[in-house]
Specification:
single chain, mainly alpha, 3-stranded antiparallel sheet, two-stranded antiparallel sheet, 4 helices, 5 strands, 10% strand
Length: 155
């Protein structure tokens, strides 16, 4: 069974992926706005202040896009700058939420990564080995995206 915290973590990572796709030109603004709205709707039990801050930045994106659409005009340099600011603010909110998740043990996660040496861990799910020296409670395998307990974590 997946915990709400781990489910949210996966949504946060998808949000970051969507932001990167937009910045790389593989996702248009309209789709980004829609995807962010859906992903936010899936996040469970998140702090109301966090949700309000996210919605404020998302709303800025929607406003910029809607005005350009209604005026049938391309995005201006100012629009693009404001989009970049909102995307950076969303990224910071999401990264902070991810860092909060990693900082505390998740009682629903029973598997622990294995220490290979001082700098490397092995995933208990896919046996991928990756460089990681984190002391946080949780680690995320970059190959399978599964969370596991960090054997280096000290309470």
């Amino acid at each position: 069974m997946e915990s709400a915290n781990d489910f949210n973590r996966k949504q946060y990572q998808i949000i970051i992926d969507k932001l990167n796709m937009y910045e790389n030109g593989t996702l248009d603004l309209s789709r980004l706005i829609g995807d962010l709205e859906v992903l936010l709707g899936h996040i469970k039990d998140e702090d109301n202040n966090w949700r309000t801050l996210f919605l404020r930045q998302w709303g800025r994106l929607e406003d910029i896009y809607s005005i350009a659409l209604v005026e049938n005009s391309p995005l201006s340099k100012v629009d693009e700058d404001n989009i970049a600011i909102s995307i950076n603010n969303i990224r910071k909110l999401v990264q902070d939420a991810l860092n909060d998740y990693l900082a505390r043990p998740d009682s629903f996660i029973i598997n622990s990564a294995s220490v290979i040496d001082n700098d490397w861990l092995m995933c208990p799910y896919c046996t991928n080995v990756w460089e990681n020296t984190s002391q946080q409670a949780m680690v995320i395998c970059p190959s399978c995206n599964e969370a596991s307990n960090n054997p280096r974590y000290q309470k």
